[in-house]
Fold these 2 entries.
Entry 1:
Amino acid sequence: MARLSRVCPVGVPQHVIQRGNNRQVCFADKQYFSAYAHWLQEASRKYQVDVHAWVFMTNHIHLLCTPRVENAVSRMMQTLGRQYVRYFNFRYQRTGTLWEGRYRSCLVQEEIYLLELYRYIELNPVRAGIVEQPSDYVWSSYTINALGKASELCTPHALYRALGNEESERQASYRQLFKQHVEGELLTEIRKTLNKGLALGNERFKVEIEKLTGKRVTARKAGRPVGWRKKDTVHK
């Protein structure tokens, strides 16, 4: 199936994932995680992308971010990817690719799915069996959003700020969201839309995005198009 062209409207949040080629390790130890976080911060500032949530796993990363100018996420990811690959290859005295092709992304409808994506991303280490609690994993934004750890990388989304009038109130409300895991149909939908580059939202949201961008963000129906038999008969 042909890959959908990239859609990156200003002000619409995106869920981004980038995996290591053949699921290979991309972050060997603390130095590698720290380097990636540093360059992500620099690139997000340079290209005007607000980063709300993230997790860095050993062989892939997730981001939840909002571009403030056209094509900002693409520019950020291209710069970050190239810079980190040069660093990784130099440290390991290797050449060639590190990432599994280009990054994948999907647009996110704020009012329905944004806080679900916060949870999905920061619970990744728990689902993977690495830790029991999201607070136990260093390389995610959970301790910032839930516990108030200072960060120059994290930009709170308006829906996060709406969780409470004070920081302590917002953090307490945020922690309550993690009483339940992301599972079932929601988990399947998040993964499907991300892997296929679709939009995560209701039908109204998808129609609005397609009108805004002129590009398809919904899956095509399986099978041949309606009327294909009739066309074949006419041309015989």
Note: The longest helix spans residues 72-92.
Entry 2:
Amino acid sequence: MAKEVKDSSTEEKIKNAARVIFHQKGFAGTRTRDIAEASGINLALLNYYFRSKEKLFDLIMTESLEVFFRSLHSVFNDPTTDFEEKIRRIVENYIDNLSANPNIPIFILSELRNHPEELIKKTGAKKVFLDSVFMKQLKEEIEAKRIKPIHPLQFIMNLLGMTVFPFVASPMIKGIGAIDQAEFESLMQERKTIIPDWIKSFLTP
């Protein structure tokens, strides 16, 4: 009997549905039946393609982490750009990526709380942040007294907080400011300029 060939369009349909549901509900809150129904297939066919919720979740999580960290790898380790330019590019890339994938920060944060060591290992975040060209440049700027002394983790927390938090808190921000999605997106585009200016201001001796 010939081996059945999996249809790539069906596989992609399942992944797209799973991505939306996992991002909204996380691993624990998602049922394979929910994914099957959203994909327009039966549960047996979903299990044929992915065998288990764990396998499908691992795939979606890996892809989501790649989206979240992809741009940082190249920016942090680009030897051709200086410290100030890297800050601008990091902020721009984060805002662009999160504007296109607004559910990713909450998804990652919720799973990070449950499996921190596994996620840190998958992202390679430690190497990206602490062993990068960017961190070497930060230390050089401090040693040259061009910026105030600051712990690298303090810098990362400030940068990520100013960039990522508005996306996590977007429902609250839109409610407090009585703004719609289009106005929120406009504010985030403004932050591409505002955040680097703020960082430069508080780092200037």
Note: The radius of gyration is 20 Å.
